[in-house]
Write a structure and sequence with these properties.
Elements: H1 2-27, H2 33-48, E1 65-68, E2 74-78, H3 85-91, E3 94-100, E4 103-110, H4 114-166, H5 183-238, H6 242-272, E5 281-284, H7 285-295, E6 301-304, E7 310-313, H8 315-332, E8 337-344, E9 347-354, H9 386-396, E10 400-406, E11 409-417
Parallel strand pairs: 6-8
Antiparallel strand pairs: 1-2, 1-4, 3-4, 5-7, 8-9, 9-11, 10-11
Helix pairs in contact: 1-4, 5-6, 7-8, 8-9
Length: about 425
Amino acid sequence: MKKIKHIFISMLVVTAITIVGIIILGGQQLDYSNDVVALNRITIEAGRNFEHLEDMDLQPDIGAFAIYDLKGHLVYSHDYNVKVMVEAMKEANAMQNIIVDNRIFGTVVLAPTYEEAIYNYRTKIIIILGCVLIVMWGVAIASAYYINRSIIRPFDEMKEFAKEIAIGNLEIDLKMDKKNIFGIFTESFDLMRTELKLTRDKAEKIEKSKMELIASISHDIKTPITSILVLCELLSVMIKDEDQRSKILSISSKAEQINHMTVDLLNSQLEELGELKVTIASVLSSDIRNIFIVADSQKKIVDCKIEHCIVKADQVRMQQVINNIIDNSYKYADTSIWVDSKILGNSLLMIIKDMGNGVAEEEIHKIKEKYYRAKGTENKHGSGLGLYIVNELMNKMEGSVSFRNEEDGFIVELELELA
C-alpha cells in the first residue's frame, strides 16, 4: 500500500509540473502585426508590377514569400519554393489576394517564420503532453483497480480471516477466488480452518465425555456415603460405650467431608456440562422454611422466620442453594444462625445471618466468582464453587443473592419473586 501511495504522489507531482508547463507554453502568443504590414507591402508592390514581378521594390528584411497565379501555380518566389499554392496554404503564415481595379490577379503567401514554426511545435507538444497525462492516469487508475481487486482486497480478507481464527471463530468461511494471486493460499487457509474446527470439536467431545464420567462416578459415590452416614447415625444411638461412640462420630465426620466434596465435584461437573437446569414453579414459603430445617444438620439455626407467601422458584434448586449457604456458615463461622424474611414490593427477601468474621470488604464482590476462595480459608476443605453455584441458580430462578458484613456477623440475602 505504501509503495502504491508513493507512486501516486510522484504522479501528482509530475502532473502538476506538466500542467504548469502547459499553462506557460499556452500563454505565449505570437505577434502577427509585422506579418500583416509585410503582407500589405508585398501585395501593393505585386499589384503595381504583376507583369514584371522581378522589378518589385522590396525591403531587405521582408521575409520569405511566394506569389501564385489564379490557377495556383508558382509565378514568383522569394526564398519560398513551394510549387503548388495548396501545399503552401497548409503551412502559410498569412495570405492575401492581389487585386488591381477590382480584379484578382493572384495570391501572395507568406512563408512561416522560425517563431511560428516553434509556436506550432509548441502546440503539438502541449497536445502530446495532455494525451500522455490522460493515458498515464488511465493506466494508473486501471492498475490501481487491478492491484486492489487482485492483491490488496484478497490480502485484507485473509488478514480479517486470520483474526477471526485467532479469536476462535472457526465457523467463518473464506471466499475462494482462484483468479487472484492468493487463490491457492485461500484454499489452504480454509482447509486449515476446517481441520482446526474438527480438532476442536473432537477435543470438546472428549472433554465432555470426561466430565460426564466424573459426574456419573460422583453421583454413584453419593449413595454409599449416604448409607454410611445413616448407619453411623443409627449406631451412635444404639451404642452406649463412649469410646466406640467417639470412633463412630469420627467416621461420620469423615464421611460427611467426603459427601461435601463429592457434592461440590458433582455440581461443578454438571454446571460445566450445562445441566444445572431450573424449572420455575410456585413454591410455598413454608416449604422453603422446611428446606432450612432439613439443611441444618448441626442444629445451629436458632430462629427461622419466613413470611407466609408463594414464590417463584425450583424447590430442588432451592435445596442446593440453602445447603450451600448453611454448609458455608458451618465451615467458616461455626456459630448460631438466624433466618429472617420480609416482603419487599413483589419480592420475598430472606436474610441468613451468622456471627462469623465475614469476608474482607475488598474481596466480598469476588466470592461469587468460580473457584474463588477468600483469604484465610486455605485450611478449610472446599473448591470455591459453592457460592458461584448459588449465584447461578438464583439468577436462573429470576432471583438474586447478595452478601454483606455487619459488626456482629455476616449476612447472605436471597431474593425471590412472588408468584
